[in-house]
Design brief:
The complex is a heterodimer.
Chain A (H helix, E strand, L loop, with lengths): L21 H10 L1 H7 L15 E6 L5 H12 L3 E6 L4 H4 L3 H9 L5 E6 L4 H8 L3 E7 L5 H18 L11 E5 L6 H12 L3 E5 L15 E3 L2 H5 L4 E4 L15 H8 L3 H4 L7 E3 L12 H4 L6 H25 L1 H4 L6
Parallel strand pairs in A: 1-2, 1-3, 3-4, 5-6, 5-8, 6-7, 8-9
Helix pairs in contact in A: 2-13, 3-13, 7-8, 7-13
Chain B lengths: L1 E11 L4 E10 L2 E6 L6 E4 L4 E4 L1 E6 L12 H10 L2 E6 L10 H14 L3 E2 L17 H7 L3 E3 L8 H13 L3 E4 L12 E2 L2 H6 L3 E2 L1 H18 L3 E3 L5 H13 L3 E5 L2 H4 L21 H13 L4 E2 L8 H4 L16 H10 L6 H8 L1 H6 L15 E11 L18 E11 L2 E5 L2
Parallel strand pairs in B: 1-4, 1-5, 6-7, 7-8, 9-10, 10-13, 11-12, 13-14, 14-15
Antiparallel strand pairs in B: 1-2, 2-3, 5-16, 16-17, 17-18
Helix pairs in contact in B: 4-6, 6-7
Amino acid sequence: MSGTARTAWTRKDLIGIEDLSRAEIELILNTAPQFVAVSARESGIKKVPLLQGRLVVNWFYEPSTRTRTSFELAAKRLSADTLGITASASSMVKGETLHDTLANIEAMHSDIVVIRHSYAGAPHILAQRHPSHIINAGDGCHEHPTQALLDAFTMREHFRSVRNDPKAELEGVRVAIIGDIANSRVARSNIWCLTKLGAKVILCGPSTLMPPFIAKMGVEVSKDLREAIRDADVIYALRIQLERQKSCLLPSLREYIRLFRIDKESLKLAPKHALIMHPGPINRDVELAAEVADSTRSVILRQVTNGVAVRMAVMHLLVNSGRIMPAAATQERGA
Amino acid sequence: MSLVIKNGHVIDPATGLSAKRDVLIEGSKIARIGNRLAGDKAFDAKGCVVCPGLVDIHVHFREPGQESKETIASGSRAAAHGGFTSVVPMPNTDPPIDNAGMVEFVIRRARETACIKIWPSACATKGRAGKEMTEMAELRDVGAVAVTDDGSDIASSWVARRVLEYADMCGLTYLAHCEDASLVEGGAMNEGFISTKLGLPGMPKAMEEIMIDRNLRLAALTGAKIHIQHVTSAEGIEIIRRAKARGVRVTCETAPHYWMLTDEAVTTFSTNAKMNPPLREAEDVAAVRAAIADGTIDCIATDHAPHTVTEKDVEFQIAPFGIIGLETSLALVITGLVGPGVVSLERAVALMTRAPASILNLPVGALREGGPADVTVFDPKAEWTVDPEDFASLSRNTPFTGCGLHGVVLLTVCDGRIVYKRG
């Protein structure tokens, strides 16, 4: 199998899945279960001191409830201090540059800076210049690496459980991602993550929301929902922005529903075991019918639960790898 | 006071001269081109090329309005440093140069502050709004050498047609920035696999090709002369090639970054890889090189577009378009075109002197006895590493920082005055 046990985390930041090796992805996924256990402790004391005394700054240029809360909880369960900076209150309005804002945050001795930004590449350019550990919590339509990691973790957990094989991997698993691929950082990170882990990815959505040359990322593209989900082990519905018809990308939500909604009717064409996933928040009855979202096939809330654990794993690896892993300690940490 | 540039390899595409000669400059004129000439002062150009001062018909000097990016003074020093003695600044300043008073302002500032020749262009439409024509005859009479709404295209085909007709009557060439802006929403880079991967909004090549095609059809319809700016795409070039074959009066330019770089340069989110039109793909780079070789592309321009470090040091999607080019252009021609054998050294010099000058009928770009002493001396073999800190431009936005290039300008003379000397 993979050399996961010997892989050490050496990166300063988590910017995207594209840069990661399969071994690095597996290291994160294999680090997460202990944190799933922390959150599920019978004692109710959901805390470990791994980031005690550290400062984690959640810096969000876009509204977010789920991701932001998840990062905040992850930091708190690692005993870190947390600080939130929101877009509306912030510097963009005052004309301060991104670099200046981060320099100010760092002047207060931040250890991890979690950033969500509406422009692609923002975490990348920050990570190149600043000493903090940068975690990309979603940059424009580019990447959302922790989402992809928690998704892969949730899929793996599910298949390990139903197959009764604690070592099952995602090799050969067929994942159909449905919806607005063009504007989705979740789709891009998932494509990188799943293909690196050996899964087969099929994309399906309106041709107006399918970015050019996406197949070069190692995926299949289908225009027909039935074809896309016919052999799927996982059906991953993306959130559709309700205003797409204004920019002439969709004639109407009604037509989207007619062609691409995951509901009882369309699921008749999918394998019975196919798992339903969604990154949230759901537009009920638009991309996903309520009856499906709430069905036993759906692991949408499990994704949320696992999200905290995966983010704990990422933060722990970023901050503590150099200290606890001899292999990493000998390597220079990028600045 | 006379200056003789001795022992150089004199290349003058206007006369077909390519031989070892001395060039004697007396006052502001070239007195003689010959052998064993003597003067009060001598410059030894052994091993170097001596050619007409370079000409760039597409630069942005930002004056008036954005003088922290560049001024006519600093831009002219950057030009001299790059071997240029004549440039055509674009009129998309703030306010834009769309009336006679503004053209006169540029000419006055050039006279007061520039060390090289500034040939102003003026807007084709008032306020660059694409609606009403400017008073082109008057603009010409006060010194504008071309009309253009550079920075954007004229969206209305009706207006574009009338601009072409009227400019041609005035003896002015319309410089067309070909871009169908309605095809793009927040475009930041070439639309292709890289934009898909990076999640950046794309600018498809069709954006450029649609307007090249429309503008050439309007040129054919009206019989007017047209110059297509910064050509980047293989298909765009093919459209121009076909129009030329049909006898449309079209010329075109490209800029060094379009044969040196592809959209791969954007993968680091470096804003110095952001320009409009955007960096394209390998097949387009190959087509640009081939079109330079076969003459479809008539001249080299830089589209020198200064922006301050602060303005460029932002998220890719909100960074301004453009890079500076005057101080790297010659070396990129030598390194990227002459070195690999795309063009000869003589042809390269033509692409940067006689060719651009003749497109706009500028009385420069040649070495003639009795003509203006605009002369550049460069060592085509000398190597250097691009360091923007050495630039005379006020701005630093180049994607070529750290690149090792061949071709160093040693001396630039404009109207007999030494405007740049290395060392």
